[in-house]
Amino acid sequence: MILSENLTKKYGSQVVLNIEHLEIPKGQSFGLVGNNGAGKTTFFSLLLDLIQPSSGKIVNNGVQVNTSEAWKPFTSAFIDETFLIGYLTPEEYFYFIGELRGRNKADVDALLSQFEDFFHGEILGQKKYLRDLSKGNQKKAGIVASFIGNPEVVVLDEPFANLDPTTQIRLKAIIKELAAEQDITVLVSSHDLSHVTEVCERIVVLNKGEIVKDIQTSTETLQELETFFGG
Amino acid sequence: MFKHFIRLQWKSFFRSSSFGKGIALKILMVFLGLYLLISLVGAGVGMYFILRKLVPDVSPMWLISQYFVYWILIELFLRYFMQKLPVMDIKPFLSLPIKKSAIAHYILGRSAVSVYNLLAIFFFVPFAIVLIFQGYPALNVLLWVVSIGAITLCINYVNFIINKSDKALVIIGAIIVGLYALDYFGLLPVKEFFGPIFHGLYAYPIAVFIPVALAILVYIINFNYLKNRIFLDASLKTKSQEAKTSDLAWTKRFGDIAPFLQLDLKLIWRNKRTKAQVFISLLFVFYGLIFYTQEIYANMMPMYAFLGIFMTGIFLANFGQFIPAWDSAYYSMMMSQNIPLRKYLESKAGLIAVSVVVMFLLTIPYVYFGWKALAVNFGSALYNLGVNIPVILYFGSFNKKRIELDQSPFGNMQGTSGTQFLIMLPVLGLPILIFTIAYYLFSVEVAVIVLSVLGIVGFFFRNYFFDKITEQYRRKKYGMIDGFKEKNS
Predict the structure, then answer these.
(1) Residue of B243, B247, B338 with shortest CB distance to A100
(2) What is the pLDDT of residues A206-220, one digit of tens each?
(3) Which of A12, A105, A9, A77 is nearest to B247 (CA)?
(4) Which residues contact B430 (CB under 8 A, 6 or more apart)?
């Protein structure tokens, strides 16, 4: 589904990302871990064509992302709060995203009704603009918005940060459910090793822009990762 | 303690990113500031002689005292918009071992040296110096200046008390208009009533204690109020307004661009800066009154062209020059979403086009000043629609400065860079130049026709232009995303 080859990103002489070869098959739930500055967000930004690669390319379902925009209809993402439109209410935001992805109000409402638990009554019908919601609630809205319109690739950067424990547990269930579906590829990055090992079938560890580990998740994975980062 | 605060203040000023903006903008700001200062000092110096000349048999001091009450009220009214108590800056200090009273004193003390207070000083001190040279008793004049300073501080602190409610603004506005009307129609001698009171400040030097005492009193009230409210949830929290959901169903008839149109309308209506932009643009309809009514401009056709382009295109210029920076806060989302860039641009163009038509309709009454005014405005509107809309969208692709939508628009230079000044040349200068040349070579009629035809031609090439502009936005995409991420100030 996603193939990156000889991908590098340099700022001046500093190399922030250097991935020789990375292939993520369709339907995989893929976890990206690494310390600050390891290149996680850089990789996602490259995947979404928000920054230009210094060399190499990313191909998303046969579409090279920095030359064609044909990847947009089947890809959705939530990177940070800058993906939200502050002066809209959550409902208006969902409908707007829905409209961009060819879903009418009824479709969006049907999807939202599945996330009532996740929202915990703090998102819908609050008479608040997104800019006035707390960080955690903004995140909830942004994450759910990325599920609108049956995307085949869902990219979530640090989805667990800023969420309360209940919501984290619910989000894990949601991601697992999503990953269980055959044709949805989920890409998640996180600082939280236990969360990411729990939801992802495969984990790639980035360090200073390079892939240092590529693991199929098993019962020992958490231990392995903790030794790696602890040592 | 205050030493620390002042040092921090100093750093925040010199390290603020607005200070580090482009050199051209900086120079412009310095010139504007100097110009304002010099005009104030000049007005202060000249005021004595002007008043002497206008009303030779009354002492200027007496005259100026009569208008004091209006000065105070109008300044209160204006400050309501301009000046807010700078409470947000103290958040980092709350958890540090600093007494709350020290913080309160600091906030209030800092506001005393604000620019708004200096304005009055720069006007009244030169005025007072002239008075002394004209033989007014020095002691009286000096203490009078002290009184003025105290009154300014009173205004400063009263503003913070009343700033919390919109009602106060309406009341002050009503009082200003009411007093002036009463005075004007001779129902109540307002000036004669307040004149002696303020003149007393000069005539009886001992009276200086009254404004000083008042200033101290207002300060103490403010201090007590503030000290008890230095909590995150009380005065520091910015109020969030209740959201009104609207689906703007009528936009559906515009087809593909409907979602963007809805977004743009909400953008304009729900954010301070954009909303003010609309009101300012509407006010500029009256701009014509300044020129059409004056004899000198009656036959100055290039001036008509300027007014036409300017009045019908004011929203085009004000709003258009910052496209797409209005969406800067969430631009990376827009760029990774399934968005046809062209529809996005067409929606903006549609909105501006509507504004041009509305502004033209509003200027129709100027036909009172002759058919030429109407004809020129019509030609200008067509030119704006056909040529200036694509031009301003094209130049928008050079925008790389982020705009925070919920900040006040007054004196807000956010998002401004050299581009904005460059845009004005082709948008405003070119049509006036074309008009002027056609007018002097042929006639007004021809000049209007030339503008109109250019507009219509531009309209026919609309598709071509939009293809090119979309291409340009695509090319500049990465730079824009990068630039819009940089938060300033």
Answers:
(1) B338
(2) 998 999 989 998 888
(3) A105
(4) none
User: What's the average model confidence in pLDDT over A123-149?
Assistant: 90
Distance separating alpha carbons of residues B172 and B177, to the nearest angstrom: 9
Q: Is A127 on the interface with B (CB under 8 A)?
A: yes
Q: Which two tokens stand for residue A70?
A: 């044909």
Cis status of the peptide bond prior to B137, with omega within 30 of 0: no
State whether residue A182 sits within 8 Å of chain B by CB.
no
Residue identified by tokens 């300027």 is B306
Which two three-digit tokens encode residue A231? 């040592």
What are the extents of the domains in chain B?
A: 2-227, 249-485
Amino acid at B281: S
User: What secondary structure does DSSP assign to B272-338, as a single string?
Assistant: HHHHHHHHHHHHGGGHHHHHHTSGGGTT-HHHHHHHHHHHHHHHHHHHHTTTTGGGGGGHHHHHHSS
pLDDT classification of B24: cutoffs 50, 70, 90? low
B470-477 average pLDDT score: 89
CB contact under 8 A, A149 and B333: no
Model confidence pLDDT, tens digit, residues B270-306: 887 788 778 888 888 888 887 887 777 777 888 888 8
**Closest to A87 (Cβ–Cβ): which among B270, B332, B335?**
B270
Give the pLDDT band (50/70/90) at residue A7: very high
Question: Strand pairing of A55-60 and A202-207?
Answer: unpaired
Q: Round to whole Å and give the CA distance between A109 and A114.
A: 9
Nearest to A140 by CA among A177, A115, A176, A107: A115
Neighbours of B26 (CB within 10 A): 13
Q: A75: which chain B residues are within 8 Å (Cβ-Cβ)?
A: 336
What the block records as the tokens of B161 is 């008390």
Q: Under CATH, what is the fold of the domain A2-83+152-230?
A: Rossmann fold (3.40.50)
Task: Classify A122 as helix, strand or coil.
Answer: coil
Judged by DSSP in three states, A64 sits in strand
pTM over 0.90: no
Q: Is the pLDDT score of B380 beyond 80?
A: yes
pLDDT at residue B489, as a whole number:
42
CA distance linking residue B178 with residue B297, whole number of Å? 34
If you count them, how many residues does chain B have?
Answer: 489
